[in-house]
Automatic annotation (TrEMBL):
One of its GO terms (molecular function) is cyclic-di-GMP binding. InterPro entries: PilZ_domain (IPR009875). The lineage of its organism: Bacteria, Pseudomonadati, Pseudomonadota, Gammaproteobacteria, Alteromonadales. Gene3D superfamilies: predicted glycosyltransferase like domains. This is PilZ domain-containing protein. Residues 152-210, 496-576 form the PilZ domain.
Amino acid sequence: MNQDFEQYHDIIEQLKPMINEPEFGQVLTQVAGSVPKQKRFLLKMELKRLARPCTRLIDLRGYVDGKCKLYEYENQQHFLDDIAIEVFERQVRSFGEYSVGVYEAVMNTENNYRVMHKKSQQASQTPQPEEDNTPASQQYLAPIMPFGEFAQRSEERMNYSMSVELFTETNKSMLATTVDVSLSGLKLKISKEYRFKSGERLAVQFRGLEHEYMLENRQGVQYVIESVERNAQDQRLHLKRLFDTLLPSFDRFLERFIHGNKRRYKVNLDNTFDAIHKKTYEQYYIPNFTSIPVYIESTDDQFVPRYALANDCNRQDIFYWNNEISDLKLGYLFSDARIKKCLSYPKGSQETYLYVFHHIKNEKVYFYSASHEELAANAGLRDLYLSYGSRKISWRVYKLQIQEVEPKQSHRPLSIADSISESVKRQNQPPTPRLMSRLRHLSHIALLTNVTDDANTLCYQKLPLVRAKLPSLKVFGHPRNRVPENIQVFRFKYANQRRETRFMLRTAIELKVEDMVIEGHTEDISIQGIKLELKSFFHKSTDSLVEINFPQLQKVTRKYDLSNLSYTVRHISNERNVLHLNVVNDESSTTTKAFFDELIKNNRSKLKAYRDEEDIPGIGEALRNIYANNVPNVAFFIRKEGAKYLPDATATWSAQTRLTNLLSFQAPPGEFNLLPLFEGFNGPLDFIQHTLSHIKPHQRPMMSELFVAFDPKKESTSEAIKSCFIEQFANDDQRRQFISQAIEQGQFIALKIFIARTGRPDIDRLQSEINYVGVYAVHRAKQLEEKLWNVNGVGDILDITDLVMSRYQFDALTIHDNRERQQYQAHKSIEIEQLLNSDSP
């Protein structure tokens, strides 16, 4: 970009998406209204230049501080690093194609050696500006945007301001101004000196329309107050029309008036923009959470697990529960007694921890599990169970959270009215009776989250192990002759779903790399690739070439040689023992693809796949909608500003909990403060920054454990909140000391933080609403789309305080007292809110 236009950088960025739109001239005048007319003309010419198509190839090898790779776009081959690819794709979205502006933006990324050299020269010649004095407590504020919470309108509203006269039931008169108008409702602005309450009836005379239409009924049009919003300047009344007195001629006039003027005065789109905003965050979150939502039916006072919702990030934890013949045994965890025990706790605390491992004997898998309460009831076996189980590679620790749901939450209509189009009307239809009959008994979601890590595993391994007592652990084993409830797994389909179906198959393999042979087994197979778990650590990197032998499968075929088949490593788990492999296109690939193609075709009825072809159409989407309306933890979203990653938004359906109290401290209503994730007592915390800089989209989320000392008696967040990631402590003694001091001064809170890079949102599912707002506010729609594409990270915050305190041998009374402090703070907070919201006498 020409240096003359640097001062107009923000204006140019706003106008880029509009260059090829018919409204470009009008939007230019609005956005650049303060720019002199001559300069505005030059801005227009500059934007036209930037929008010209470009055919130049880009090769950044040796020009940027990053690893470049081949990147193809519309049959052109470029060599770009990750930062350049991100800039390229963002700019292409703005311009609509590969243009001069895209080329220049990619050639001027922040890690370009030429750009860095130029900046260093300018920095040495220019006095350093004053530091940003924005308090840290303000930098990390993010709005709370609960998924699924948006208004669905049955008709269009038009933004229109006119004077109206209101009459109360006691015939008291007052003047107001309309904000928006529809056939069955009004939004009014009125002086704050009047007092209104929901449910109050009002008669409305439309004084601003009297020159066009005179009401026949002198009593006015009857409305009821739905809600009242008060602020420092005035108050807003939301009115719903009462049709106890019919006014057909007025209805016809108002309908014609809105239809004839809606393009001039604009339809009110606030609810639709709000819906697009929240749905896009939801699209980022649902494919990236690692928890397993299990849907529980309640009939005759018995709780039975029925369904589970899968995505690419929780597949690994679901597959863990496959036995040697790939039968899913996840139902072992959800006994009626366990569920009832959790439900006996107060709402908001209906949770427990599960400790799990499996044992393989004679090629058969035996599952063991124990809840926190079950281990407490068998105190003599607790340490033995934890010590022995944690030594096994199959050791897992889960947090189990249970909360109520309603089947009707499966319906998610659009935010726009049926009258817009037949397509919209079709999408607004409620679920079919057949589908609802499958959901009608659902009463709860049991959310299962894998929180296993080295810290808790090493702690349990230090407990005494008396091998002579191991047979007594059979009490925690699940007998193979008692079949658990069958849980059907469904996956909600997204744009980033896999190109082919993967089938669950557990079979032995031998992986050869260099001079090593590592044994393991497959978890799933497809024609193009396999996922496998190794018995030992894989020391090579992604893109490594390996050879695979299939000794068990070789026994069932003489037609194919299943030895030394070539694969490429595409993904390695954090533990470096779970690999995703793709077939290499060499001489052996013909054999590999032909064998697995034949295996799958001949055994389709036996092999279990994710249920992409649903027996009841729409059940995957219905389950996803129910979960989105009941997310118990705090989801958060990260945007990038320059080189920094900052909170963009949060989402949760939890009310007053230990976690929400922490994040609400000194935050304005409707916002959370994510300061504990970014600022520690020894300086900035770089877990989020470092992770997002190194992982790629569609990679399984990274996780870490955060310790927080919270003293709400302190006035400032920097004094009240002291946080530190677990890796920053030298040993367990320091961790225990931190916990003890936190309890002495206030409250200790431990959080599990998950973070992943976002992929592309599934815009197809938002297309009807995007098209609708594009008709009336294309510029605003483009701005929202660009803002949402700037979301770089998505994560989850999970409270694991009780687990951590138990791990470090704090007794049950101390854990209980630490939890009770949250309830006291919540009670105080509620009392204060009630006091502030009470009406003046």
